[in-house]
Amino acid sequence: MNLYAPWEKAFKKVATPFEHFIHAQTTTGIILMVMTILALILANSPLADEYANFFHTELTFNLGSWELSHTIHHWINDGLMAIFFFIIGLEIKREILIGELSNIKVALLPILAAVGGMLFPALIYLSINAGTEGTNGWGIPMATDIAFAISALVLLGKRIPTALVTFLVALAIVDDLGAVLVIALFYTEQIHTFPLILAGGSFLILIAFNRFGIHMILPYFIIGLLMWFFMIESGVHATIAGVIAAMAIPSKPKKTPVGFTQETKNLLDEYDSYPVCTDHMVHDRQKRILFNIRNGIDAIGTPSARLEHDLHLPVALIVIPLFALANAGILIDFTSMSTTIMEPISIGIITGLIFGKVLGIFGVAWLAIKFKIANLPQGTSMSQIFGVAFLGGIGFTMSIFVADLAFMNNAELIFQAKVGILVASLLAGFFGYAWLRFVAKSK
């Protein structure tokens, strides 16, 4: 069954290196939308109490006298989301090494636009919430949800050039890196030195594995799991362990691809030299040849590419949907919704994600092009960059994640933040899509 069949035609315009990445992000975006709607329905149904109680159920792991106990909500946000951040780390590493961020001339515009798209929303939010109990939420409107943003862009089909998709992908990757740094530096309340040292030691072991040419996944998984645990104990948010671990995964193949084609052809010719068995079973020697071909493919591949490919689907189908189901359910009381939206936190997030992102992404991009610091992506127009800037205001997944950290244990402020995030993301996505669909023209 082809998971991408309903929108397969939309990808014919996308360059080959992006195809799998865009497929995965679009799948994530559509599933994320469905699970968000489901969470909102459950939170506003007769099952609301059962829905809330389920995610507040304690889940405990014991090993002798050692115990690790958290709610299911906490396990999702600190445990499963570490896998999501691991994928982000692999994507960042790939883009820096061989992707759009590897060429500084191409990367400069999305890098500058992403920095502007983080600074302006934070400044706008702070200008509204300075000196209030919502001050700590300044990081919430800085983030862009790459899955939703790319989904909206890809669904436009041939109306947009490939270079615009490339621009958004590079921008979103830089945005993710900025969000990770903000979480690590500003949303860590208390540091416990000894567990942090152990986490650092675990990372050095991962680096040593890399340097010694170990390409097996299992050793990295075991040490990475230990590093995640030490991060939890240190006070630094555990999801940062996912990003750090990704940096240590080997990105170079064991063998260079030189001669691979000829070696494979020779093996296939040898395979074909054996007669076909009537019982459809292959010869023992043929099995060995197939095994050698598979080993050859693995040898010219890299663990980082293999992990990124293998984990995208589980993250899209399990991790992100569970995160949305656990975090997007808010009680919608239309009698008080107008009051909630007018709270400083909600206003700060809405104006930050919509106007802040447009000022930051489009404004900085326009200045960079105006003063010839960077070039406009080939075949695109400033009008299309304006539309993409609005799509950058879809801050769903990462914004909710930061909101939980910023207003930890304060349900009322988290509620106001989530209302602002949902409203802003909906408006930004709708306007960005409509602008690119009906107004913006390619150059």
From TrEMBL:
GO molecular function: sodium:proton antiporter activity
Residue ranges crossing the lipid bilayer per the database entry: 21-43, 72-92, 104-126, 138-156, 163-187, 193-213, 225-249, 311-332, 344-369, 381-407, 419-436
Catalyzed reactions: Na(+)(in) + 2 H(+)(out) = Na(+)(out) + 2 H(+)(in)
Signal peptide: none
The entry's keywords: Antiport, Cell inner membrane, Cell membrane, Ion transport, Membrane, Sodium, Sodium transport, Transmembrane, Transmembrane helix, Transport
Short name of one Pfam family: Na_H_antiport_1
UniProt cross-references to HAMAP family, sorted A to Z: NhaA
Described purpose of this protein according to its UniProt entry: Na(+)/H(+) antiporter that extrudes sodium in exchange for external protons.
PANTHER family: NA(+)_H(+) ANTIPORTER NHAA, SODIUM ION/PROTON ANTIPORTER NHAA-RELATED
Name of the featured protein: Na(+)/H(+) antiporter NhaA
Lineage, opening ranks: Bacteria, Pseudomonadati, Campylobacterota, Epsilonproteobacteria, Campylobacterales
